C-alpha cells in the first residue's frame, strides 16, 4: 500500500454486509479504527469475541430490513455469499441466495443514496480454466461452478446499476484467502483445512495428486485492498487481488511441514471436476490504480495463521 492511503483519515460511514464470517471478521477489525462509522450485518457471528463492541445487526440479506441497515451510510462492502462447495448442489437456491439477494441489496443502496459499493468477487472462480497465467482482468470469464457464475453475474449487474441508476462500485476479484478466523466449518480454505488436520494429528486429505496450483493472499493484505477500493478515484472498476504467485497443494503441505518441523501423513483422493488445474492472478492493475500489492509472504502468513489455529483447535471438543 502507498503511504497516503494508510495515513489519511477515512471519513466513510460503512455498512459491512456479511461481517460475521472469516473475511468479514478480519475486515471489521481492520476497518473499525479507521472509518468514521462501521455497521456490521450478517446471519451470525462466527467469533463474537472478535467483534465485541462493534454495532451488529443480524439478519438474512434476502429478507432483512435493509433500509434500516443502510440508513446513514455512504459505503457498502458486500461480502455475503453462500459457500462454494454447496452452490452446485442446488443451483436455483444458490442464485436466489446470492444473485437475487444482491439485486435487492443494490435496490436499497440506490434508495439510500449509497455513494459506492465494494463487492468482493472471486478471482479463483470467475475465470474458469485459464488460457494462460498469470490471469489479467481482461481474460475471458468462463466459470465452471455455480458459485463462480453467481459472482460474475453480480459483477455484471453492478455495471448495469452503475449505468442505469448511477450506483458507483468497485469489484475485487480476490484469490484464495487464508489467515486467522478461517475454520473448516464451511469446507473452504485449504490452508485452514490442512493446518487443522495437521494440528489434530490427522492425515491430510488431498483431492487429486496435489499438483493443483492456487494463488494465496493473506487476509490482512486483502483487507487493505478493500480500503484502497473505497478510496479509489480512477476509471477502472474491476481488480484482481492476490499474491501473484502460484503454489501447488504439495507446496502448501511442504510449507506446513517446515513450520511444524515434522512429516505429515497424506491421503490422496480422486480429483474433483470443480478444481481448475491452475489459477494465478495478474495484480498489476491493482498496483497501478490502487497502489496495492500483497505484502505478506506465505511463510509469515502461515505462521500467523497457525498460531491462531492452535488456539482454535484447543477449544474444539
| CATH fold descriptor of the domain at 12-177 and 218-241 and 282-294 | Rossmann fold
Label the CATH architecture of the domain at 12-177 and 218-241 and 282-294: 3-Layer(aba) Sandwich
CATH superfamily of the domain at 12-177 and 218-241 and 282-294: NAD(P)-binding Rossmann-like Domain
Report the count of strand segments.
13
Structural class: alpha/beta
Distance between the termini: 40 Å
Q: With helices defined by DSSP (H or I, 4 residues minimum), what is the helix count?
A: 11
Roughly what percent helix?
A: 25-40%
Described by strand count, sense and barrel closure, the largest sheet is: 7 strands, parallel
How do the strands line up in the largest sheet? Answer: 3-2-1-4-5-6-11
Q: Can you identify the CATH class of the domain at 12-177 and 218-241 and 282-294?
A: Alpha Beta
Mean pLDDT: 92
Low-confidence stretches: 1-8
From the alpha-carbon coordinates, what is the Rg to the nearest angstrom? 19 Å
Amino acid at each position: 500500500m502507498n503511504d497516503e492511503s494508510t495515513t489519511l483519515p477515512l471519513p466513510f460511514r460503512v455498512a459491512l454486509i456479511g461481517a460475521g464470517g472469516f473475511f468479514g471478521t478480519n475486515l471489521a477489525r481492520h476497518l473499525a479504527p479507521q472509518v468514521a462509522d462501521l455497521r456490521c450485518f450478517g446471519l451470525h457471528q462466527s467469533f463474537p469475541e472478535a467483534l465485541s463492541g462493534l454495532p451488529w445487526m443480524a439478519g438474512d440479506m434476502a429478507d432483512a430490513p435493509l433500509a434500516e441497515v443502510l440508513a446513514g451510510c455512504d459505503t457498502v462492502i458486500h461480502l455475503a455469499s453462500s459457500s462454494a462447495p454447496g452452490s452446485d448442489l442446488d443451483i436455483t437456491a444458490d442464485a436466489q441466495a446470492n444473485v437475487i439477494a444482491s439485486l435487492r441489496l443494490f435496490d436499497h443502496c440506490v434508495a439510500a443514496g449509497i455513494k459506492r459499493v465494494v463487492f468482493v468477487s472471486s478471482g479463483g472462480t470467475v475465470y474458469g480454466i485459464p488460457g494462460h497465467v498469470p490471469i489479467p482482468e481482461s481474460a475471458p470469464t468462463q466459470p465452471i461452478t455455480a458459485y463462480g457464475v453467481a459472482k460474475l453475474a453480480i459483477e455484471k449487474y453492478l455495471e448495469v446499476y452503475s449505468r442505469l441508476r448511477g450506483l458507483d462500485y468497485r469489484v475485487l476479484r480476490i484469490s484464495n484467502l487464508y489467515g486467522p478466523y478461517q475454520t473448516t466449518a464451511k469446507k473452504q480454505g485449504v490452508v485452514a483445512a490442512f493446518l487443522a488436520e495437521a494440528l489434530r494429528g490427522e492425515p491430510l486429505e488431498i483431492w487429486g495428486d496435489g499438483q493443483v496450483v492456487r494463488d494465496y493472499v493473506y487476509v490482512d493484505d486483502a483487507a487493505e485492498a478493500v480500503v484502497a477500493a473505497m478510496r479509489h478515484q480512477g476509471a477502472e472498476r474491476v481488480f484482481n487481488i492476490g499474491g501473484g504467485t502460484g503454489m501447488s497443494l504439495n507446496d502448501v503441505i511442504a510449507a506446513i511441514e517446515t513450520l511444524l518441523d515434522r512429516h505429515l501423513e497424506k491421503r490422496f483422493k480422486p480429483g474433483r471436476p470443480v478444481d481448475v488445474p491452475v489459477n494465478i492472478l495478474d495484480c498489476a492493475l491493482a498496483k497501478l490504480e490502487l497502489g496495492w500489492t500483497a505484502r505478506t509472504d506465505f511463510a509469515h502468513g502461515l505462521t500467523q495463521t497457525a498460531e491462531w489455529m492452535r488456539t482454535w483447535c484447543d477449544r474444539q471438543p
